[in-house]
Design goal:
172 residues, mainly alpha, two-stranded antiparallel ribbon, 5 strands
Length: 172
Amino acid sequence: MDDRERTAWSLRAAIQTAARERFRASIVVRPIPGLSKGYRDVEPLAGLRAAVLARNVTTRQVRDYAEQARADGHSWDAVAEALGLGQVEGPLTRGEQAYLHLVEHRLLHTDDPDRRSGRSPVAYWRCSACGQYVTDRGPFEAAPFNNEEGHAPECARHATEIAAYRAEWEEP
């Protein structure tokens, strides 16, 4: 594990601590496919709340540090490099893109690789009921079978969602 990975683990641990202390998260053990032991984590909604708090704090810190860098005489290009923004194609320089990201809250090209490729963004997760990896396109369609792909045919969780949808939307 290199220094960057150790730092990332430290930040994750701080988020888990915040989840336990601020949001009273309990510890859960998540299974790891193929291993007899799982990994310890905090309850996901409390973890999400803590991670959102961390994101909001770090978003503000990113802008504060960028403004301090500019005050110290660093260029917008140097700020873009610190943000991890590589050379870009198009009418804007990477310094201009860094400015627009920090000041106007526009996405950087590095923020969403799916948008660059033209694919619709999706989430992937392992269903706790059937154990299969699911492609989740979000809550944009009413029918759960249009939003989630990959559940096992006998998945009780997905079947319950489909039955609830049909009870509400389809004619008997």
